[in-house]
Amino acid sequence: MSIAANQVVSIHYTLKGDDGEVIDSSAAGEPLTYLHGHGNLIPGLERELLGKSSGDKLQVKIAPADGYGEYDPQLVQRVPRRSLKGIANVRVGMRLQAQTAQGSRAVTVTHITGDMVTLDGNHPLAGQHLNFDVEVAAVRPATEDELSHGHVHGPDGHHH
In terms of Cα–Cα distance, which of 114, 118, 116, 112 is closest to 98? Predict the structure, then answer.
């Protein structure tokens, strides 16, 4: 069976940066299982997997625009530490949820200078090429429940 929309796909992958450093990998565990065509993967990888079958192996380089987007300096802002109410011990690397005019957005604390905190709303991989080694482990039709919910359910059904 070839990968197409509305199918459940399981892949093993290794993601590397342009420097060759491993960013993420499923090699030591279970494959990543997702519902194809429902936005559960970055667009570039989903497009590259279309038409592949169980056992296929591929190496793909995904441009930022087809991954986590280009880096947007407008998503970086400096705020007074006091505006982070209820968050004790703010430190570089912390991931926080910020309320914006566009809704909730994950931000990362990237710098602290005195009472000013720099928050970056870009995805940590924004602006980077993503280099994937992928092996398709399995492809199967999605169930009606999975299609109606837009994501894969575990072997024992619906759990959320």
Answer: 118
